[in-house]
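REQUEST ID: PR-0412
SUBMITTED BY: lab tech R.K.
PRIORITY: routine
TASK: structure prediction, single protein chain
INPUT:
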Amino acid sequence: MKKVFKWMAIVLLGALFVGTFVFLYQKSRPKEQVYEICDVQLSDLEKKTIVTGKIEPRDEVNIKPQISGIVSEIYKVAGETVKKDEVIAKVKVIPDMGSLSSAENRVRLAEISLSQAQTDFERMQKLYDEKVISAEDYEKSGVVLRQAQAELAASKDALNIQREGISLSNAKMSTTLIRSTIDGLILDIPVKVGNSVILSNSFNDGTTIATVADMSNLIFRGNIDETEVGRIVEGMPVVITVGALQDLRLNAQLEYISPKGIETNGANQFEIKAAITVPEGQTLRSGYGANAEIVLSRVSQAISVPESALEFVGDSTFVYLLTDSVPRQSFERRAVTTGLSDGIRIEVKSGLKVGEKVRGILKLE
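STATUS: complete
OUTPUT:
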């Protein structure tokens, strides 16, 4: 019985030894590498660049008051459309006390002058009727009277402008009524009733009462890197995609390239603008973030392979042409000349023919 166990132990040890030997042998053998095979085919290739920017109205106007005062009424809200000269708000004038006092004094002096001129005219008229004075003297007194009347009207008009901001002789053109200067959509009204506003002058920009824009005439504004600005020209077609509107692609045309670059994060950027064609019924909002896709170069029906199939050695480029696949893959190294790439496939100008097959990336087991 002991001999049986002894021989069984010897057999088990021998089997373990042989199994270990076979396992190590299998592990030491090089694995066969299998590559994906790519077809050499004709493709339309495009080299594109993507420019990040936003959509803006071409004409956007800040409406500012022509007088300083306090907003007393607001007739419109953001989102409403307005016509040129339509009233948006009203400003109540806060008069300067010095100017107001001067205007009141001017009225009083004008009233005194008119009273004196009226008395003189009546006296001259009586003397003229009695044939004591000439017609010329009588007419001069009439001129003085009319001048005094005009001065009183002008002084009262100036006083009313100081008090109310409205001219008595031309109330329709009142500077207290803030009117739109263009037809368009009100984008923003940053003031509220009771806010103080100041007019625009050489010392300050003035208070913006409202921002109005023509939303039927939109442009894309963005910045392109200096490495690509030399490859674009005005008039090139542009495709605009809007992040907030899925699957919307807008046609546009490049109309402006800045002649001066601006340094941004260490890189020179050049501003570009493109006129957008808005589809009928489509609503776009000012400030939408967007991307502009510009085709820098294009080639049609070019012999092409995936870029992953290329091998670069110095200034030379090679592919591995499939020569046999049975019993195992075999390849022939071949030099090629490349052209335009779209980032996925690349043009092969010489070295390959349509229908040939080349080695791609290594398959993972």
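NOTES: The chain has a mean pLDDT of 84.
REVIEWED BY: pending
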